[in-house]
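Lecture notes, part 5. Sequence design as translation. It can be helpful to think of inverse folding as translation between two languages: the language of shapes and the language of residues. The source text, in structure tokens, appears below.
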């Protein structure tokens, strides 16, 4: 299904919505020209999860800024963060924070003329495009401004590539959207085609991201950093991506190449954990007064140390500073040490020293050879592919959540089934689609699109739940099938393409801005 098909279907819905607006049955405002809401939401995520190089900032006027509490993320009208706490040159202030892409957006949005912004204590932005050193509130009080350029944990392009805004959003309960009434007038086959086309567009966006990476990286590196980023959740996905840049695939493969096969897994694990700064012991185990480390922990640390002492020369200048951001909002079973231990086993099981991309092509070739036809056969293919990315095998971390922590009663997978399915759909599938297209292998591409269309639904996130209420409820029976992941992907695409990422109401609806003139007569 082509981009043209999606555009045509989208235009049809836009015409229906335009009629509702003209008749007065739907009140919708066009989106603001030149809006950069996605960039602004990205910066809000950066602020919320403190994805900054350090804990201190410097204002444009030269004052020292310490962020005690970034505040409560506001998804409605008004300042972006409420009830924050900051310390400016030693003076503690409580109030709100406003985030912009450009410094001049404060004036352009007329916040200085709006009394709802009188509690703002800090104006934060990415691009400094004016010469002002402070901003002024409606009540006449000046506030400090902070430019984040040069302060981000990684460049803005890297953050854009790995932060999925739908994982960060906390939408308010949604009412039916303005487009729902227009959709209800269209027949079920149209709605199915529209949702399927939107899902394809969403996957094409993922393929384009892979293609962008492939311009400057080898296929193996692209796949490797895709896997690493896919292991992350919410804000720590950025840290996984940065780790893939600190320890590149080719360097990792090169340094472990001389090792016997029995030592490769632990060597990879040692490199990743050391560079990521994830080998600090719990405080009680590190102090003299705490209990001694148990024998398995001592043996594990000694084994890691042996490998690191031989290999650290390659990576000593790449070490990431230890940070609690690895663990922000993460359940113990998904702690990064366990995920990286799982990745080390996965790489070895895929025989990564012979090439990671080649291993993926072999998996695809095997699936093509089996030639699934029935729904049940396709389900087995998807299950088998997902199982590949949930490796078993012995590991210290199979029964531990923390280094030196109490063992669990039962082993717990290092990469769980749900995470493995996420890796397949959001990482492996777009990579293989890109690769098949690059190799002009039409049969492989058709096979992969069939996997895409029949992939069972993953767990919902905040945006898909929001969009289900905004768009899906009330639609004709049988028009939308929530059993498949493609439907959720369609909702995500519509949220960004049509709703313009607006969680509050339909005031940013993008359908009207691009709507063709409805036919007359």
């Amino acid at each position: 299904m082509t981009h043209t098909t999606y555009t045509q279907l989208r235009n049809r819905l836009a015409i229906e919505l335009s009629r509702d607006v003209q008749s007065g049955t739907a009140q919708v405002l066009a989106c603001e020209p030149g809006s950069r809401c996605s960039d602004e939401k990205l910066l809000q995520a950066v602020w919320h999860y403190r994805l900054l190089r350090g804990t201190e900032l410097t204002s444009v006027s030269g004052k020292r800024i310490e962020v005690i509490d970034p505040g409560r993320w506001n998804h409605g009208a008004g300042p972006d963060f409420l009830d924050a706490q900051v310390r400016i040159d030693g003076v503690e202030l409580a109030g709100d924070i406003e985030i912009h892409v450009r410094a001049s957006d404060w004036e352009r949005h007329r916040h200085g003329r709006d009394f709802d912004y009188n509690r703002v204590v800090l104006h934060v932005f990415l691009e400094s495009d004016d010469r002002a050193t402070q901003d002024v509130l409606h009540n006449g009080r000046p506030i400090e401004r902070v430019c984040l350029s040069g302060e981000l944990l990684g460049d803005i392009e890297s953050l854009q590539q790995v932060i999925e805004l739908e994982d960060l959003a906390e939408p308010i309960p949604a009412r039916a959207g303005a487009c729902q009434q227009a959709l209800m007038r269209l027949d079920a086959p149209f709605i199915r085609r529209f949702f399927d086309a939107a899902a394809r567009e969403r996957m094409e966006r993922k393929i384009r991201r892979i293609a962008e990476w492939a311009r400057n990286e080898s296929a193996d590196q692209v796949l490797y950093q895709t896997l690493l980023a896919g292991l992350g959740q919410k804000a720590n996905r950025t840290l996984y991506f940065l780790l893939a840049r600190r320890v590149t695939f080719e360097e990792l493969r090169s340094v472990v190449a001389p090792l016997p096969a029995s030592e490769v897994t632990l060597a990879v694990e040692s490199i990743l954990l050391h560079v990521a700064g994830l080998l600090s012991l719990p405080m009680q185990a590190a102090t003299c007064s705490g209990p001694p480390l148990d024998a398995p922990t001592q043996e594990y640390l000694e084994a890691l140390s042996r490998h690191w002492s031989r290999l650290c020369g390659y990576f000593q200048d790449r070490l990431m500073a230890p940070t609690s951001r690895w663990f922000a909002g993460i359940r113990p079973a998904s702690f990064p040490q366990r995920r990286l231990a799982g990745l080390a086993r996965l790489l070895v099981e895929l025989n990564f020293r012979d090439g990671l991309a080649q291993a993926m092509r072999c998996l695809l070739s095997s699936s093509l050879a089996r030639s699934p036809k029935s729904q049940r056969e396709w389900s087995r293919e998807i299950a088998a592919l997902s199982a590949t990315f949930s490796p078993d095998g012995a590991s210290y971390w199979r029964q531990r959540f923390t280094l030196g922590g109490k063992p669990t009663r039962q082993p717990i997978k290092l990469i769980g089934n749900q995470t493995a399915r996420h890796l397949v759909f959001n990482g492996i599938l777009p990579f293989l689609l890109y690769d098949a297209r690059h190799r002009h292998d039409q049969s492989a591409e058709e096979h992969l699109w069939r996997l895409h269309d029949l992939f069972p639904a993953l767990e919902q996130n905040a945006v898909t739940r929001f969009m289900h209420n905004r768009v899906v409820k009330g639609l004709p029976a049988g028009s939308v099938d929530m059993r498949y992941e493609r439907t959720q992907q369609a909702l995500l695409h519509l949220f960004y393409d049509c709703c313009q990422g607006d969680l509050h109401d339909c005031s940013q609806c993008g359908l009207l801005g691009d709507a063709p003139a409805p036919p007359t007569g």
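The translated text above is only one of many valid answers, since several sequences can fold into similar shapes. The radius of gyration is 25 Å.
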